[in-house]
Every structure is written in structure tokens, then in C-alpha cells.
């Protein structure tokens, strides 16, 4: 068999055992390889060293307020859909220690914290999740402000994206234009078929990672199978939002719609939707001072617009009730986010639907607001 010359944009196939060598190459390059694992009856992200650590033959059943793992009926490794975690936790950690002040001989000494920057390789990033990372890039890597913690972590990330061939019951990435195929922003992209992984090279780092792998040319059958599976995935979304381009104006023109009152009777203000969302970025700072007053430390922590204290000001609370907080969340994510960052703040992953204990469904809320809406 003639040697295959690899280049940026190459599309090749590897037999599945070669995947372990790919991860070994990434580890040798200094990356911590992070991927999907099964823990506590859910798919979570954590360290992986090879195929043995992936949830082979596992997928999930999801609907509003419901999540269960179940056998997929095959031996594939990436048939699972998103669990409660997102890659946000590695780029924008739930808690970041910022600095510490210590009093010595009557003077204050400052020590910057959170200086160690891990080098991660994200394995199995779905198209919707890839879009979510790009959305957070717009938030934290703006021209007028660049968050140093996010920037340092983002610059060192290797992304192995995975085409999503089996969307879940709450997925609606087709409506948002974010899936099921990963189109850009990856170092390598993988499409899993029964016998092989198809790979597409996106960057030089991705090219370097597969240089010593035993690769094969793409058989016509494999290309046809991948295209067929992606088309079927696009048709089998669990949720759908029609005419997404009209949604920003729809929400802003109907701030007094009766649906806001109705959903407020069900919403628990639990913050689940914002905690599992891969794009939400609300945060607060906490200061902790020792009892002797000689040391104090500041940390940045995730917060939520559903937290009553989040909208509290010296003169009162600008969102004093559940209706105001839910309306702020939905209109920001699906409307005013565009004015701030040029894109919608939703990628259609469906996590907010799955993990809402009150079964509130963002797609159904938008449909309800269309009923009797003002143009």
C-alpha cells in the first residue's frame, strides 16, 4: 500500500486500536487527555488514557427533567450525548483563586494565585460544544478586554471534535446552526463508524498528533456511511425551534406576554439551567479573611442570574421575582446576547431542558410566546 502523505485538511481513516496511540502522542506532547467517562450513572468529563476508559456501547435517554444511561446496542465509543458537564469547567473554572494578601511587619504582601496553567486535550467535543467554546471566546477574548485566566487556558487547549451521529431527546442544534457536524475550530475531527474512525486534520497540532499513525485512504463506502449518518442525525433532533432568526425580536417585543407569568409559577430558581449551560458566564467574587485579620484571599466563582442576590443593588433588587429573572435569562440568551457578542447565547445542546427539575423546556417556552405575540 503506498504511503499516504498527510497535510492540513487531510481526511483519512484509522483502525480503532490506533486511537490509543493518538492519545499517547498527545500525552507525550504534554497534554492532559480529558474525555467522556461514566461516573455516578452519568457521562462526565475526566482523564482518559485510551479506549478502555471511554463509555463503549453507552448512550443516554433524555427528555425534560429526565436523564438515564442505556445500552446503545452497538460497540461504538462516541454514541453518547451530552451529560450534565460541559468543557466550560476547564476553561472557565467554577472557582478560580485570584490573589492573597498577607500582613507582614506592618506591610501587606500580595501573592497572585491561579498561576499554573494546565495543558488540556479535549477528546470528544461535540459540534454544539465546539460552538459553545467559540461563544465563550467572544465573551472572554474581546478586543477591549481579555480575561487572563481564560486566555491562558484556551491558548493551550487541543480539541479533538466528534461528529454527533446520535442526538438526544432534548437536542436542537440543527435549529441553532451548530451541529450535528463539527465544521471548524478543531485540531482534529473524528467521525465514528463501526469498524473505523474517520479523521480530518484542522491544524498543525492535529497533523503532528497523527504523523506516526497507520492511516488509510477513505473508502467510498465510509464516506457515504458518514454522510448518511449525519443526515439522519439532523432529521432526528429531539427538539426544534422554527424560524430562529425571528426569535430575538419576538422576545423583546413581548416582554409583557402572559407566558412569563405562567413559567414563573413553575420555575424553582434552582440555577440548574445556568450551571449546566456551556455558554453561561455569570460570576461573582468572594473574599475570605482569617480571624486574626492578617490574611485575606479573593476567589472568582460561578454565579447565576437566577440567584436573587445576583441582581441586588444598594437601592434594591432590579429583578425581585422569578418572572423577572427567568425573562432576563431567556431574553439575554436568545436575543440581547446578539447585541453584545454578535451571536446567540444558545447552541441547542438541550442541557437546560434535561436538567430542569420542573420540566421547563426552552423550545416550548418560545413556542408559547409566539401564541398571541405582538409583531
Quick overview:
The chain is α+β, with helices and mostly antiparallel strands. It has helices at 18-28, 88-91, 127-140, 148-154, 173-176, 204-209, 220-235, 247-252, 258-264, 272-276, 322-341, 351-354, 362-370, and strands at residues 11-15, 32-39, 42-47, 58-63, 66-71, 95-104, 107-112, 120-126, 158-162, 188-192, 196-201, 215-216, 283-289, 295-302, 312-313, 316-317.
Description of the molecule:
Helices cover 30% and strands 24% of the residues. 37% of the residues are buried. The chain is globular, with a radius of gyration of 23 Å. The chain has an eight-stranded mixed sheet with strand order 3-2-8-9-10-11-1-12. It has a four-stranded antiparallel sheet with strand order 7-6-14-13, with no helix packed on it. It contains 13 helices and 16 strands. It has 375 residues and is α+β, with helices and mostly antiparallel strands. The model has no long low-confidence stretch (mean pLDDT 93). It has two domains: 11-92 and 116-235, no CATH class; 244-280 and 304-370, no CATH class. It starts with 10 loop residues before the first strand and ends in a 5-residue tail after the last helix. The protein has helices at residues 18-28, 88-91, 127-140, 148-154, 173-176, 204-209, 220-235, 247-252, 258-264, 272-276, 322-341, 351-354, 362-370, and strands spanning 11-15, 32-39, 42-47, 58-63, 66-71, 95-104, 107-112, 120-126, 158-162, 188-192, 196-201, 215-216, 283-289, 295-302, 312-313, 316-317. A hairpin with a 2-residue loop joins strand 2 and strand 3 (42-47).
Amino acid at each position: 500500500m503506498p504511503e499516504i502523505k498527510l497535510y492540513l485538511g487531510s481526511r483519512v481513516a484509522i483502525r480503532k486500536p490506533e486511537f490509543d496511540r493518538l492519545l499517547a502522542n498527545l500525552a507525550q506532547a504534554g497534554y492532559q487527555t480529558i474525555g467522556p467517562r461514566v461516573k455516578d450513572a452519568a457521562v462526565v468529563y475526566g482523564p482518559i488514557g485510551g479506549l478502555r476508559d471511554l463509555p463503549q456501547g453507552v448512550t443516554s435517554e433524555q427528555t425534560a427533567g429526565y436523564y438515564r444511561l442505556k445500552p446503545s446496542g452497538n460497540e461504538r465509543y462516541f454514541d453518547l450525548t451530552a451529560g450534565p458537564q460541559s468543557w466550560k469547567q476547564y476553561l472557565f473554572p467554577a472557582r478560580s483563586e485570584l490573589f492573597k494578601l498577607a500582613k507582614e511587619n506592618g506591610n501587606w504582601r500580595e501573592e497572585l494565585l491561579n498561576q499554573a496553567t494546565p495543558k488540556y486535550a479535549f477528546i470528544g467535543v461535540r459540534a454544539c460544544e465546539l460552538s459553545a467554546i467559540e461563544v465563550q471566546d467572544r465573551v472572554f477574548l474581546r478586543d477591549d478586554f481579555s480575561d487572563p485566566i481564560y486566555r491562558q487556558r484556551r491558548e493551550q487547549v487541543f480539541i479533538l471534535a466528534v461528529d454527533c451521529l446520535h442526538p438526544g431527546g432534548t437536542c436542537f442544534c440543527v435549529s441553532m446552526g451548530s451541529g450535528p457536524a463539527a465544521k471548524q475550530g478543531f485540531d482534529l475531527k473524528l467521525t465514528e463508524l463501526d469498524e473505523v474512525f474517520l479523521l480530518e486534520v484542522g491544524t498543525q497540532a492535529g497533523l503532528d498528533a497523527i504523523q506516526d499513525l497507520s492511516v488509510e485512504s477513505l473508502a467510498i463506502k465510509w464516506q457515504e456511511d458518514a454522510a448518511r449518518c449525519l443526515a439522519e442525525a439532523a432529521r432526528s433532533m429531539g427538539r426544534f425551534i422554527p424560524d430562529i432568526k425571528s426569535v430575538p425580536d419576538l422576545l423583546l417585543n413581548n416582554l409583557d406576554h402572559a407566558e412569563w407569568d405562567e413559567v414563573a409559577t413553575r420555575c424553582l430558581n434552582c440555577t440548574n439551567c445556568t450551571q449546566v449551560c456551556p455558554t453561561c458566564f455569570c460570576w461573582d467574587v468572594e473574599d475570605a479573611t482569617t480571624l486574626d485579620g492578617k490574611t485575606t484571599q479573593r476567589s472568582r466563582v460561578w454565579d447565576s442570574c437566577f440567584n436573587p442576590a445576583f441582581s441586588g443593588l444598594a437601592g434594591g433588587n432590579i429583578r425581585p421575582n422569578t418572572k423577572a429573572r427567568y425573562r432576563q435569562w431567556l431574553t439575554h440568551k436568545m436575543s440581547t446576547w446578539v447585541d453584545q457578542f454578535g451571536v446567540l447565547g444558545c447552541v441547542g445542546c438541550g442541557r437546560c431542558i434535561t436538567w430542569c427539575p420542573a420540566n421547563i423546556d426552552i423550545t416550548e417556552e418560545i413556542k408559547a410566546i409566539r401564541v398571541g405575540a405582538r409583531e
